[in-house]
Structure prediction request, 332 residues.
Amino acid sequence: MSERLWTDRAPDYPLECDHCRYPIPGDVEEGDDGRYCSVACRDATDDSMLSDPRAYKRFVSSVEPLDSLVPNGIPADSFLLLSGDEGTRRAELGIELVWRALERGEPAVVVSLANPPTATLERFYQNGWNVLPALENDRLRILDCYTHRLDDREAFLEQRNEWTTFVGEAAADAIVEVRDPSDRRELTNSVTGALDDLEMTETGLVTIDSLDELETVFRDRQVYDFVEELRATVCKARFVPVVAAASTADENAPESEYAFDGIVDLRLTDRLATDVRLKQLAVRKLIGAQFLPQWVTYEHEPARGLFAFGPNTDARKVYDLGSGPPQPNQPR
Prediction:
């Protein structure tokens, strides 16, 4: 990632406030131990020193296709929607964003609506990403919004195989069962409670695996209200980004788009060759950040995660298709 962010506006603003770390646009307020942009900053320094905003106000996702489109980082106070149909690796993108945060040494919270928590954890293991240390070190929390729908939870536990039982027992302290996910207040409190437990302010990431599943649990406008509440209490108040996945954004409801700070679209292209469709990713909107207005072709590999095709990549070789079957008007 480039180190040049929005704060790097020299030579127009050569001085930086020693409290808020923003450029000083006018006269300098001199203090005993620094230079300030305002009286408020000068006086506040006596009580505390703010963190450098460059340290937490943007983050690099470390997911190659996404970062290639947002070269200066994603605002950390963003609520992002991953919008794509089945087959676009939407779930893998959400899982990888969590793993990359853990790799950076940051905590993460996963709201698991589409799968039981052990199945959510299995998605990491399928990619060769061992999250057991993060579970033991209290850096990963799973909010279980799934098992409430099981008629016989005890039978479900008894039917698990040896590996699933081991994962469930190892992760027991990191799994928080939400008793009634249809209660918007309880779900919101469960998220903020997990953030408090992990001391997540200006660090970490929250993911919601499926807003589609949430719509089956909530009624009326509650999904929209839930998004707005998390956006205010988590993203804007704590500078902790939230990422949610959904099949598609409802273009017939303008409020669905306005509720999000950023929308990442994932799509399948027309066929490149027989029985092959390419996956592409683009940023539709991202408030507060520059992004490249183009589609990036990508694929997924275990351990590597999502990776972008270079401009000269032969997609047939990526999929080991050779030259493909003879095409019309082409020599055999």
Q: What stands out?
A: Confidence is low (pLDDT under 50) at residues 1-11, 323-332. The longest helix spans residues 222-238. The first strand starts at residue 29 and ends at 31.
